[in-house]
Amino acid sequence: MALVSHFLKIVQFVSLFSVSALSWPPPFYFWPLFIFGQFLNFRVYQLLGETGTYYGIRFGKNVPWVTEFPFGVIKDPQYVGSIMSLVACLSWVPLFYILLWILGYVFIILVESKEDPATRAKPLS
Question: pLDDT per residue over 34-57, tens digit each?
């Protein structure tokens, strides 16, 4: 699943780059949104590892329950971080593409919120 996700991420970035108009310096809102968004993504990956980040629990892998920041403070921190990073790029990428990508994340958040709790990681007892 990780390889598939990495491939799809490359396709997404190439697609966005093909419609972007890069300019320097970026607007004032770029740095805080992008840095904090990427921090959230990095932290989720750091805490869950590749197996936890890429749905390993659904493939029978053991994924421990995580309570450290940002979990327990921010709901769906990896998706929030990705959305923040996308919003940071609004001055370079047309709004339609950013909204379409964000809509994809919102859809995933909604689908995952309706899932059977048995398919999720379990809290340590």
Answer: 999 999 989 988 887 776 676 666
